[in-house]
Amino acid sequence: MYRIVRKEVLNPQVKLLEIEAPYVARKAEPGQFIILRVDKDGERIPLTIADYDREKGTVTIIFQEVGASTMKLGQLNEGDSLQDFCGPLGVASHFEGVKRAAVIGGGLGTAIAYPQAKKLHNMGVSVDVITGFRNKDLIILEKEMAAVSDRLFVTTDDGSNGTKGFVSDILKKLLEEGAAYDVVIAIGPPIMMKVVCDVTRPYGIKTIVSLNPIMIDGTGMCGGCRVTVGGQTKFACVDGPDFDGHQVDFNELMRRLSMYKDFETASVERHKCRLEGVANG
Amino acid sequence: MANMSLKKVPIPEQDPKVRSRNFDEVALGYTEEMAIEEAKRCLNCKHKPCVSGCPVNVRISEFIALIAEGKFEEAYEKILETNSLPAVCGRVCPQETQCEARCVRAIKGESVAIGRLERFAADWAMKNTKRKYKDIPKNGKKVAIVGSGPAGLSCAGDLIKMGYDVTIFEAFHMPGGVLVYGIPEFRLPKSLVQEEINGLLEQGVEIKTNMVIGKVLTIDELFEEGYSAVFIGSGAGLPVFMRIPGENLNGVYSANEFLTRINLMKAYREDAETPIMRGKLVAVVGGGNVAMDAARSALRLGAEKVYIIYRRSEAEMPARLEEVHHAKEEGIIFKLLTNPVRIIGDEKGWVKGIECIEMELGEPDASGRCRPVPKPGSEHVIDVDTVIMAIGTSPNPLIRSATPDLATNKWGCIEADEETGRTSKEGVFAGGDAVTGAATVILAMGAGKKAAKAIDEYIKSKNV
Question: Is B180:B263 a contact under the CB 8 Å cutoff?
Answer without folding.
Answer: yes
